[in-house]
Amino acid sequence: MGTDKRQRQKANRERARQERIRKQKLNKVRSRGLRFGLGIPVVVLALFLVANLVTGDDESTTTDTAPATTAPVELTPCPAVEGESERVNSFAGPMENCIDPAKSYTATFDTTEGEIVVELDTENTPGTVNNFVSLARYRYYDTTTIFRTDPSIDIIQGGGFSASDSVGYTIADEGSGFEYSEGDLVMARSQGPNSGGAQFFFVTGPNGSLLNSQGTYVTFGKITQGLDVVKAIQALHTATDDGLGGKPSRTVTVNSVTITEK
């Protein structure tokens, strides 16, 4: 009997040991499962957010945040087609669309050295032409001067009284890669893009092609009459030390710029 009792006790201890081992293993598995259980939802949530950022459908997305807005650009209304009665030199902003794309436009520059007639390129540069035509009709160019001459690149520049004059707004560049030739009417601007406003220059000879490497000044017209006038103004060149090449030896005034619409 004593032997049987000892064997049963031994067997009970073994079963108890095995049960402890089993519970320990179970606890390890549960513990491991809880740790993964906390990690998996985080990973799933992250994947869900990334998926929605990459493939989210705009039509099903709602938000309580108002979309970012920018202040609208104030436009200057169109001037009278026949031109204003007095010169206007202050503007609210860029011009409204004032030209008819189905029509052609020429600009006649009445200067103290003679008359220059330019056919404006509404097909390739409608925005630039619209700006120029509107300014001319506002008589902005009346009494301004051709204040710069530079035979090294064959240009004469006007559209104000000095290179620092500003119309108070800028317009977008229309194209790039321009090549310049004698008789071109070109929008002047600073080195930065989209910085043109009112100033312009005429190309008076072959050295204008030296600007081809830049090609960023928008050509918006071609002289049809008066090429001899712009060459005569260039011939008045006198050197200056202001970095602009020079200026005419006498004042060259643009009395008016008249727009003809057909």
From TrEMBL:
Keywords from the UniProt entry: Isomerase, Membrane, Rotamase, Transmembrane, Transmembrane helix
EC number: 5.2.1.8
TM regions (residue ranges): 33-54
Pfam families: Pro_isomerase
UniProt GO MF annotations: peptidyl-prolyl cis-trans isomerase activity
Gene3D superfamilies reported in the protein's UniProt record: Cyclophilin-like
InterPro entries: Cyclophilin-like_dom_sf (IPR029000), Cyclophilin-type_PPIase_dom (IPR002130), E_coli_cyclophilin_A-like (IPR044665)
Domain PPIase cyclophilin-type: 114-259
SUPFAM superfamilies listed in its UniProt record: Cyclophilin-like
Major enzyme class: isomerase
PANTHER family: PEPTIDYL-PROLYL CIS-TRANS ISOMERASE CYP38, CHLOROPLASTIC (PTHR43246)
Protein's recorded name: peptidylprolyl isomerase
